[in-house]
Amino acid sequence: MPQPIEFFFDFSSPYGYLASRKIDALGAKHGRDVIWKPVLLGAVFKLTGMAPLVGIPMKGDYVKRDFARFARFLGVDFKMPDPFPFSSIHAVRAFWWQESLDPKAGHALAQRLYNTAFSGGDISNAQAVAEQARAIGIDGDALLAGIESQAVKDRTRVENDAAIARGVFGSPYIVVDGEPFWGADRLDQVAKWLETGGW
Amino acid sequence: MPQPIEFFFDFSSPYGYLASRKIDALGAKHGRDVIWKPVLLGAVFKLTGMAPLVGIPMKGDYVKRDFARFARFLGVDFKMPDPFPFSSIHAVRAFWWQESLDPKAGHALAQRLYNTAFSGGDISNAQAVAEQARAIGIDGDALLAGIESQAVKDRTRVENDAAIARGVFGSPYIVVDGEPFWGADRLDQVAKWLETGGW
């Protein structure tokens, strides 16, 4: 069996969102599962001195134009969240809560939340996250209790630390057979790597 | 006549180098001239708070791997300069000196210098730049005198300020009919923009 693809992303990352709309089909084409792993990049930014893109002089204006243009290039619907960036800790905790019960449902919840965040919806607080979960058949009350549990808070921190220890410093960060690819603009290289086994 | 493509780059930028090996052929395919414009990104980094990629924790290790992998993906010879980053002010001044005398020779000199820097050679001092110029038939002594002239120093500063005022914050930065594209990983979108006029 081929190894699954690991797809690390921040729910507040526009480029991560673009990749999220392509990565499962790309994996399926090559007989690979895709394991979604949300991260909270705030912790990484402290280590690297990096900052959220849109606040950077000059570069910030460029990337706002690029997000939308890249989305059209990929044929993906895209609406810039407002406010941005937004807090994604409740979304991440909800993911790990659901993932520990049922990984497939966790994957579906992450997709739902990401699509919501980049189509004008809100996932920045616990009630909003629970509302999206309910829309795909997840028990919202159980979710609200779960994300307040110490076990889920611990899991979130452990997974985030593990991602950072693996070198995840941005979003999306895609690992294929140990080979890391950073950025939605590496999807073509991910595709070629899957086809050829590397170069 | 279609407008020329503007190709802004820093001689010390690996991604700029990768793009430099593709941009002229891409322009030619679409009947476009490509105007090369070297910039000194140090001034921009002060404005944006950005730093040279390879020094950034985590990201620095990734990009060193990505430079070489991306070069192989594009089929471009690539050798990381050592030391890196290196000073490119003499190369930039030499370019503007030659450009003011003969734009085509300026373009050829820039290509020669970029290829030298990323194939194990040195372009970090005036004598090294003159040596490369001589190898393609340029008067090295005239170049050495030219790059010390106030006119060339002024032109270098004016062009750099103009690039920054245009929004150039990184390398490569490619402008097609007013539309900016940042990064060697936008070459596919530049190609599509040239084919379709935008999307």
Number of helices of chain A: 9
Strand element count of chain A: 4
Biggest interchain interface, per-side counts: A-B, 31 and 31 residues
Structural class of chain A comes to alpha+beta
Q: What spatial form of chain A do the alpha-carbon principal axes imply?
A: globular
Q: Return the average pLDDT of chain A rounded to an integer.
A: 96
Low-confidence stretches of chain A: none
- Radius of gyration of chain A over all CA atoms, rounded: 16 Å
Q: What's the domain count of chain A?
A: 1
Oligomer: homodimer
Major sheet of chain A, described briefly?
Answer: 4 strands, mixed
CATH superfamily of chain A: Glutaredoxin
Report helical residue fraction of chain A. 55-70%
Please give the CATH architecture of chain A: 3-Layer(aba) Sandwich
